[in-house]
Amino acid sequence: VPGAGAALRPCSSRVAQDGINKPVIDRIIRVDHAGEYGANRIYAGQMAVLGRSSVGPVIQQMWNQEKNHLKRFNELMVAYRVRPTVLLPFWNVAGFVLGAGSALLGKKGAMACTVAVEESISEHYNNQIRTLIEEDPEKYKELLQVIKQFRDEEQEHHDTGLEHDAEATPAYSVLKTAIQLGCKAAIFLSERI
Amino acid sequence: KMAAAGGLQRAGWRLWRARRAVVRCQQYPPLCALQASAALRAPSDEHKKEPWASSSQQHFDSPPAGHQPEQKPQGPHPSYTGQGGQESEDYESEEQLQHRILTAALEFVPEHGWTAEAIAEGAKTLGLSVAAAGLFHSDGSELILHFVSECNTKLSELLKNEQKLVQLGQAEKKPIDEFLRDAVEARLRMLIPYIEKWPQALSVLLLPRNIPSSLTLLTSMIDDIWHYAGDQSTDFNWYTRRAVLTAIYNTTELVMMQDSSPGFEDTWRFLENRVADAMTMSNTATQVQSTGEAVVQGLMGAAVTVSNAGTSRAVR
């Protein structure tokens, strides 16, 4: 904080895991945690509407994997002492509404939502993997492993959605673009606040 | 890459300080040379305390009229960027020097307050010229922020050591309310030697210029306390808990300013009550939530029963 006049670093009292790039790791974990939390709520919304339909088991299985992802990020968040995003209550509601809303458009609508979201998330994880590799692949080995594994699983969800006729949804491209824009905004905000 | 970036950063920092030295030049000509030389001290400069003191005395004693203050450097000094950012082992950075001056100044705060006088006295004990106080703002902001930062570091150390003892099995793990109470008390006790002048410090910390730094120091201290208390929340509770503890800390601090009881026992009793209130509130919140959930389930059950009754009547 140069504006304070003297060359004081007020946060020198906080000792993070030595040598890691705290701001970068903070952002990564915060936004990923928010993402998995949102994904959980989306699947919860979809299950609320389509739980008893034929795609119920498929959605349930994807939801279970997201629950594991969230659990893992909860652990990482505590380990790295990262602050969660303030917007969590908002993502709680917005995720559920998106899931339930897309499910009300029918099974294909729910799958379209899944495809859109999972595509956004995979791209986002790929960006993070690139960032971490640029920083120091050795230092962040564990985190890289986690993100790579999750990216692969999200990619699977994306493919599952396509298999279940996501593209046959009426207004598929409009729906997909809108959802992906929303995801980009969510990622932007969650990284910062 | 990182070393070069660090070297450039330091060079840029020094250029910024040199420019600040020019601004001050216009206000305090006798301090000019001191400022400029401080800003321009090359990394390879081995001379520290004695020559610094003697050269500054020289500049201070010579008449301002005949004295040509050193102007701003012509550009980034080749010596620091040229050396690749490597510093000799016994090089004392500007930050370290300021740190030492401020630490020495704390001793004089009870007498002089958080002022340039205290800093000047501190500088004197280190064998530096009193003009060194010109390195800092006249309202004592840096001194106060330095003090707060030091207290927070001490608190962190204390909590870390306590945690180690618990992990080694040499101490009992405290219940949360006791832990929070003890941590806040330990931190507030660090103010006791300076308690007379602390209200002045609080008002300086609230100056708009200082708010970002003082807020950061406060939030990181509160986060530290919760971390060692074992907080592992990853939802909105993270914010709620820190907000509650910040409120407890701030109000207790204010009570302490007005407290004239022996050993500040009124303050500690106030603190105990506030922490107890917070625990009660959190228990109540949990109870309200489970009651709410139970009510919702009851209503759902009632709705299902009614609809079943309706369909069975329709069948009949």
From TrEMBL, chain A:
One of its GO terms (cellular component) is nucleus. GO terms for biological process: determination of adult lifespan; regulation of gene expression; regulation of reactive oxygen species metabolic process; ubiquinone biosynthetic process. Keywords: Iron, Membrane, Metal-binding, Monooxygenase, Oxidoreductase, Ubiquinone biosynthesis. GO terms for molecular function: 3-demethoxyubiquinol 3-hydroxylase activity; metal ion binding. Pathway: Cofactor biosynthesis; ubiquinone biosynthesis. The keyword Metal-binding applies. It comes from the Eukaryota. PANTHER family: 5-DEMETHOXYUBIQUINONE HYDROXYLASE, MITOCHONDRIAL, COENZYME Q10 BIOSYNTHESIS PROTEIN 7. This is COQ7 protein. It comes from Molothrus ater (Brown-headed cowbird). The lineage of its organism: Eukaryota, Metazoa, Chordata, Craniata, Vertebrata.
Automatic annotation (TrEMBL), chain B:
It comes from the Eukaryota. Pathway: Cofactor biosynthesis; ubiquinone biosynthesis. InterPro entries: COQ9_C, COQ9_HTH, Ubiq_biosynth_COQ9. Residues 212-281 form the COQ9 C-terminal domain. Residues 40-96 are annotated as: Disordered. Pfam families: COQ9 (PF08511), COQ9_N (PF21392). GO terms for molecular function: lipid binding. Keywords: Lipid-binding, Mitochondrion, Transit peptide, Ubiquinone biosynthesis. Homodimer. Heterodimer; two heterodimers of COQ7:COQ9 come together on the same side of the lipid pseudo-bilayer and form a curved tetramer with a hydrophobic surface suitable for membrane interaction. These two tetramers assemble into a soluble octamer with a pseudo-bilayer of lipids captured within. Interacts with COQ7; this interaction allows ubiquinone (CoQ) isoprene intermediates presentation to COQ7 and facilitates the COQ7-mediated hydroxylase step. This is Ubiquinone biosynthesis protein.
